C-alpha cells in the first residue's frame, strides 16, 4: 500500500532561503510544509537591525517567487554606485551602474522587511502549509518516506526534507553532515543610522585595519544600514556605548564622509565565521542557505548565495518532477550539489582572501593593495567583470535568477 505523505517537500526554517524555496516550488504545483521555530510575529527578530545588500539576481528570484510585490516601495533602497577605500593609503575603487548601462547595482532592504514580504506571499499560497512556531527535533528515513518529528510530538511525512534552518542547522546535525567552521574572531555591529548628509545612492565601505565598515544606502536618503566588523572586545564596547557616544565613534571611524551621525537605532552584534557543509545532500535530504554555508558579510553575499541555492534546487526539483522522477532520489539532489557547492566555495574563498588582504598590517601588503585598488579601477574589463559578478549577473545562473 502506498502512503500519501503530508507534503512533497518539508522545509525546515522559514528564513529567506527556506521561504523562497517554498514559494518557488509551490508556484509550480509542489505541496510544501514550512516549519519555523520562531513565532515570528512576537519575537525579538522583529528588531533585527540588519539591512542587506540584495543583488539583481536575487531580485529576479524574489520576483519569480511573487514575494517582491509584497515589499513596500518606501522600504526598497537601491545603490547606483559603490565606493571602496582603504584606511591606510590613497587607493580606492569606484563602481557605477551607468558604466554597464544598468539602472542600479543592487538594493538595500532590511532583513525583517524581506522576511515579512516572504511571509505575506506564503500566506497567500494554498500549497504551502506553514507551521509556526514549530521546531524540528527528530528525523527518520523510512523507505521512500521522510518522517520529521516536531518538538510537540507531531510527525509529518514527505518524499524530501530541506534544511534551511540557518548556521546551526539541527537537520544537518541529525543527518550527521559535518560542517567545519572557521571563526574570524570578529563580530559585526549592525544598526540603522541617520546621517547629516544624503547618501546619494552610493554604497560605501572603508577598510579599517580592525575590519571593514560599511554604510549601505537605504530608501530614506539620510538613512544607512551599518555593518561594522571589528574585534570582539571593540564590538562589545560599541554595543555598550550610549547613543551619542556611538554616533560620534561611528562618524569618526567613517572620517565624517556623510557628516555627523544624527541618531541611530538599536544595535546588535553578530559573530563572524565562514563554513561550508561537507555535503549539501543525502538521499531525501538537502541543505540550502546558511545551513549549507556562511561567509563574511564584507561583500554582502550570504543571503544572495542562499537565494541562489533555493532557485537552483527549485529548478532541479521541478525538472525532475516534470520527468516523473523521484524528487528525493540522490542523483537528482546531487545535480543541485554539483551546481552550487563549487560556486559557493569560490565565493567564500574570495571573501576570505579580501578580508586577509585588507587587514594585513604589513607595509608591503598595504602598498600593493593600494596599487591594486587603483589599477583595478583603471582596468575596465576587470572592473566590469567584478561588477557583473557582484550584481549576480554572471556565472551559471538558474532560470529563476535570470531576467524574466
Ligand atoms: C551583520 C551581517 C550582515 C549581513 N549582510 C548581508 C548582506 O548585505 N547581503 C547578504 O546577501 N547577506 C548578508 N548577510 C548574511 C545573511 O543575513 C544570511 O546569509 C541570511 O539571512 C541567511 O538566511 P537563511 O534563511 O539561510 O538562514 P536564517 O536567516 O538563519 O533562517 C533560518 C530559520 O530557521 C529557523 N530554524 C532554526 N532551527 C529550526 C528548527 N529546528 N526547526 C524549525 N525552524 C528552525 C530559524 O528560526 C530561522 O528563521 C549578513 C549577515 C550578517 C551577520
What Rg, in angstroms, do the CA atoms define? 21 Å
Shape verdict = globular
Distance between the terminal alpha carbons, to the nearest Å? 43 Å
Architecture per CATH nomenclature, i.e. the level-2 architecture of the domain at 9-71 and 111-181 and 273-364 and 395-401: 3-Layer(bba) Sandwich
Number of β-strand runs: 21
CATH class of the domain at 9-71 and 111-181 and 273-364 and 395-401: Alpha Beta
Structural class: alpha+beta
Strand content: 25-35%
Unreliable spans: none
**Whole-number average pLDDT?**
91
Q: What is CATH's topology name of the domain at 9-71 and 111-181 and 273-364 and 395-401? A: FAD/NAD(P)-binding domain
**Secondary structure: helix percent:** 25-40%
Number of helices: 10
Query: What is the H level of CATH, i.e. the homologous superfamily of the domain at 9-71 and 111-181 and 273-364 and 395-401?
Result: FAD/NAD(P)-binding domain
What small molecules accompany the polymer chains?
flavin-adenine dinucleotide
Tell me the major beta sheet: 9 strands, mixed
Write the layout of secondary structure elements.
Blueprint: E1 9-12, H1 16-26, E2 32-35, E3 51-54, H2 56-64, E4 77-79, E5 81-86, E6 92-96, E7 106-110, H3 111-123, E8 128-131, E9 136-142, E10 145-150, E11 155-158, E12 160-163, H4 170-174, E13 181-195, E14 202-208, E15 211-217, E16 223-230, H5 232-240, H6 243-253, E17 261-264, E18 268-276, E19 281-282, E20 285-287, E21 293-294, H7 302-322, H8 330-359, H9 363-378, H10 380-390
Parallel strand pairs: 1-2, 1-12, 2-8, 5-14, 12-20
Antiparallel strand pairs: 3-7, 4-7, 5-6, 9-10, 10-11, 13-16, 13-17, 13-18, 14-15, 15-16, 18-21, 19-20
The chain binds flavin-adenine dinucleotide.
Flavin-adenine dinucleotide (FAD) binds next to helix 1, strand 3, strand 13 and helix 7.
